[in-house]
Fold:
Amino acid sequence: MSEADTHSIKLVADRYLKREVLGEGTYGVVYKAIDTQTGQVVAIKKIRIGQQKEGVNFTALREIKLLKELKDPNIIQLIDAFPHKGNLHLVFEFMESDLEAVIRDRNIVLSPADIKSYIQMTLKGLAFCHKKWVLHRDMKPNNLLIGADGQLKLADFGLARIFGSPDRRFTHQVFARWYRAPELLFGTKQYGSGVDVWAAACIFAELLLRRPFLQGSTDIDQLGKIFTAFGTPKPSQWPDMVFLPDYVEYTYLPAPALRSLFPTASDDCLDLLAKMFTYDPKARISVQQALEHRYFSSIPAPTRPALLPRPPRKGDSLNNRPLDLNANEGPTVLSPPRKSRRVMPQRERLEGHGHQGDKVDDHLYDVRQAASGNTGKSESMPMSVDFSVFGSRPPPRPTLNR
Amino acid sequence: MNYTAIDTFYMTDEQLKNSPSRKDGIDESTETTLRIYGCVLIQESGILVKLIQSVMATAQVLFHRFYCKKSFARFNVKRVAATCIWLASKLEETPRKARHVILVFNRMECRRGNLPIEHHFDNRSDNYKNLKVDLIEKERHLLKEMGFICHVEHPHKFISNYIATLETPPDLRQEAWNLANDSLRTTLCVRFRSEVVACGVVLQLHADSKSPCLRIPPGGRPLMREGTVNDETVHNELALDRLNDDTKSLPIDGEAREDAALKSKAYHKTEATAEKNKEKERKRERETEKLKVRDRDQIGGGTMTGKVIERWRKGT
Structure:
């Protein structure tokens, strides 16, 4: 609060009232602000260009260029962009949380309907990008932001680019490793919308499992993880594979039943997953086809965004954050079967009370956090076998160095 | 991507007639020549830094847009051209280093002025540092002037679509491509949507070819019926015609191009106004310019107009 007070007098560009810092990256700082002209809460991404040797940041340019055109309910809205005091400021709509926080929050139970809703919104945003011939190229839960109304929106278009021109060569060093499609790991330079579909499938799996699905420690290991999960691709499955630049042969592994990896998922769900995780990018389902898949039309219907379970707001509950760091040590929560969605009525009641409801929720959250913190320590490492061998916690999420 | 939401940067003829340059006393033909000159610089530098045509096209559109908002008297053509090609290289996903662009422009400057070519351009020299600071400054200026709307749509893709539909023979396709590239030297790109420009190119192509090789169905102009083209297209054609005449009068070989552009009829007519500009420019320079520029040594030394007059006086 004190930080907010010190900033309260000065306005950025005579318009934005600066509030607390939300995050920091290589490009600069993101902070919360209030637009004094409209009263809207916004997030401002401040990008330093003063010291930049190469002028306006390349990724910032990409983001501006693409987001100015991409207007969709499931894509983050770029409200404004302006240079100010040697910095470039990008003004975005303010988002409360992101999907990673949802997945990581052990107090949240995701019902199959909730999962369906989240993945549907993800795919809708992605479908709009692809319709406009834009590849996102950095799909991961951390970049899927969740607004106050529960709407999920695609954000961070710093790696995105236009595709569709024939014979254009792209870099294969895109996506965080865990979300990278096999053709990228084999070093292809010509790829299409399939790479985003693979990443979306990884997010889908992560929603089901409540932990990152394929956690490779190197690019080679990542491929190993993929092949362990789905079996080594046969030439009949993916004829072009052997011609890829960095192709290496892997020892043959048979594909285990998908059902064994996702014991809680429905048949429709598994069918869609299998289609999104198809090896051959040409045969992989498109986002539009995925949205038309019967998974989305069968029961249970996707939860309405406003009713989706959400973690406490980023801005309000900074005090709760440190506890969250232990989250990796707790037991892995698998998505419960349909019946155990017992927390729902209570949640809906709280939602109805608006602000007061939020407070109660925060309090409950504290209590639950404390409880889960205790149990977390007494329990042994529940993660997949690989990490228990090294006796360490799972590696941090890899990101791309920009 | 087809830009629809923000494809809004268009000027009316009146707006173009009352351009910022006009308010600073630069007449229409001078402005046209300066625009062509800037585009020639962009094209040539683009080839030298090994960029693909789409980058040059984007840069030229940015260039035209910028000078719809700002005056040629206040912003040096060469430096803006350098900034345009640099910014466009980033926008089109093939970024080039600032140093690379500066070196190329310096070299072009030396060649045009018949100056000894510096084989090593010291990047610790004041000259270099100033150019770089200016490049970065101008980039921000450019972005700000356009409200950060820096997308560009080119007529090329529409043309290739149209002529594929019309089953044009391959030799005419190259012709169409040339026309499209040439059209970027005119203000067409800030007056009409790229589809319209594309239609204009196709129609022009049809008018040029003696034999009816374009299979335009009976009943006339099918593209017009789609509602994408109206009377504007005629306009369009005319502008392209004019451009053809302009470019024909210029010798095409590299070095001579600039001089030819400068000596073209337009220039002689505008002597008086140019003289005025020069005065104005000098005054401004004295006030604001930190670096003491000698015309010859650097890309942006003095303005185009100033330099032209000087050379003209010397009788070169």
Observations:
- The interface with chain A takes residues 1-6, 86-87, 90-91, 93, 95, 97-98, 135-136, 139-140, 143-144, 148-151 of chain B (CB under 8 Å).
